[in-house]
Automatic annotation (TrEMBL):
Pfam families membership: Defensin_beta
Organism name: Bison bison bison (North American plains bison)
Protein name: Beta-defensin 103A-like
Keyword Ribonucleoprotein: no
Gene it is expressed from: LOC104981038
One Gene Ontology molecular-function label: CCR6 chemokine receptor binding
Keyword Zinc in record: no
Residue stretches spanning the membrane: 17-42
Keyword terms, alphabetized: Antibiotic, Antimicrobial, Defensin, Disulfide bond, Membrane, Secreted, Signal, Transmembrane, Transmembrane helix
Beta-defensin-like domain segment(s): 43-78
Domain of life (superkingdom): Eukaryota
Amino acid sequence: MGVVCFSQLGSQPAIRLYYLLFVLLFLFLLPVPGNGSIISGLQKYYCKIRSSQCALIGCLPKEEQIGRCSLRDRKCCRKKK
């Protein structure tokens, strides 16, 4: 019979737990094709930083498009200078 140290038994479930948490975090951050929620969120944040707003259909006549707010058709618009 082999001698088993109790400190080694305690660390293995913790390592498995960290591995499981890493896999779940990776799957959560993995972009889904067609969704791109992480990228869209960053684009919206960048638009807000530039003192602009996201328009659903298009910019108003007194506004200009300076980017996009999502991977779809939302546009980042600001007032013309």
